[in-house]
Write a structure and sequence with these properties.
Strand order of the largest sheet: 5-4-3-6-7-8
Helix content: 25-40%
CATH architecture of one domain: 3-Layer(aba) Sandwich
CATH class of one domain: Alpha Beta
Number of strands: 9
Radius of gyration: 16 Å
Oligomer: single chain
């Protein structure tokens, strides 16, 4: 089992923990940003962390692992590979998450949603709605990093490798904006 310090060391070493002034996909601002793509581009590191996450979700006896595109694709694949299950992803089309590419969830199938980073949980909530629409059984949610500080509730167990309580601000209350610091939008959702 990896320690908190080991995971933070992996994040920092991969250049995935950034400091600055960031506009998050939620519209909030933050002085720190987790760019998991920098970590996930390294197969050995991605495999190690996703294997650890798979160990946390094994207890829920999933039958399929699903992640939201983009951040959850590699995580779903690696967790599913470790557990010897199907790994699929949902992608946004016409403003809503959908299953494409002949992916499906059968009624009653036990499903775990995985993600790279959870901040507000919006993408995960969209995938949960899709699972319910397909009449699958959501048994857990898991993320490499929970940056909500443990505040996100999906109505099922939520597992993560690392919980960070990174302060976020509205545009009006952002101390970085007040100092004139330029804001950067590093996220992938437009």
């Amino acid at each position: 089992m990896l320690s908190r310090d080991e995971i933070l060391e992996d994040l920092t070493g991969a250049g995935a923990l950034l400091n600055g002034h960031f506009l998050l996909t939620s519209g909030l601002h933050s002085a720190q940003y987790i760019q998991c793509a920098a970590l996930l581009k390294q197969p050995d590191l991605a495999g190690k962390l996703c294997q650890e996450l798979a160990g946390k979700v094994r207890q829920y006896r999933p039958e399929v692992i699903i992640g939201p595109a983009m951040g959850g694709i590699i995580v779903a694949y690696e967790v599913a590979r470790t557990l010897k299950l199907s790994g699929i992803f949902a992608e946004r089309k016409a403003g809503r998450m959908q299953l494409r590419r002949n992916f499906q969830i059968t009624p009653g199938e036990r499903v775990v949603v995985v993600e790279d980073v959870v901040t507000t949980g919006r993408s995960v909530q969209e995938v949960i709605a899709l699972i319910k629409q397909q009449r699958g059984e959501l048994v857990a949610v898991a993320a490499l990093i929970d940056r909500s500080g443990g505040k996100t509730d999906f109505g099922v167990p939520f597992e993560s490798l690392l919980t960070l309580d990174i302060e976020v601000y509205s545009t009006e209350d952002c101390p970085l904006c007040q100092t004139g610091s330029p804001v950067v939008k590093p996220g992938s959702r437009d």
